[in-house]
Write a structure and sequence with these properties.
175 residues, mainly alpha
Length: 175
């Protein structure tokens, strides 16, 4: 396994600090210290705190694109995929999402827009569904995701299967 680049080490440190102290409280100095690099070394890769946020969002985009690449073409499978993905919250990655969403007021508008665009990008595979069904699936999936993200009560497996099947019943027959 290749050693992480200095850029990745800095992003890892920034991500850890966001989770620990909140995005609005992270400083460039603290990030450099956590990463074990000089402030100049940090500034070489990320000239500002906004650039650090953008770098982190860019890294999360890779995870989203990898998930999107796994979206099935079959519409029934697509509904199942989206709901399953929404309920498979990975604690570390999603803690960062929660911290970033909470910090949108601590970052400039461009970074907040990038974050919003990235989250919206995740639902693009649903564009293959009819518009009303697409929105229902997105809202159910996003609700399940955010519920899991904040530690809300999860529906039982049986209830989740019933919800998914009620959505699948609205998938039009294949042409």
């Amino acid at each position: 396994m290749a050693r992480p680049t200095q850029r990745e080490v800095v992003l890892d440190a920034f991500q850890e600090l966001i989770v620990e102290v909140g995005a609005g409280n992270v400083t460039l100095e603290a990030t450099a210290a956590r990463a074990g690099v000089s402030k100049g070394g940090l500034l070489y890769h990320f000239p500002s705190k906004s650039d650090l946020f953008a770098g982190l969002v860019e890294r999360l985009a890779g995870a989203i694109d990898a998930a999107i690449a796994k979206a099935p073409a079959d519409l029934v499978e697509l509904v199942h995929w989206y709901i399953d993905e929404a309920t498979e919250v990975v604690a570390e990655e999603n803690t960062v999402w929660l911290a970033l969403f909470a910090a949108t007021d601590a970052v400039d508008d461009d970074v907040a827009a990038l974050l919003g665009d990235l989250f919206a990008r995740y639902s693009t595979p649903l564009d293959a569904l009819p518009p009303v069904l697409r929105e229902h699936v997105r809202l159910v999936g996003d609700g399940l995701y955010f519920n899991a993200l904040i530690g809300g009560p999860a529906p039982s497996a049986e209830h989740l299967a019933q919800i998914t099947e009620s959505l699948v019943r609205n998938v039009p027959p294949s042409a």
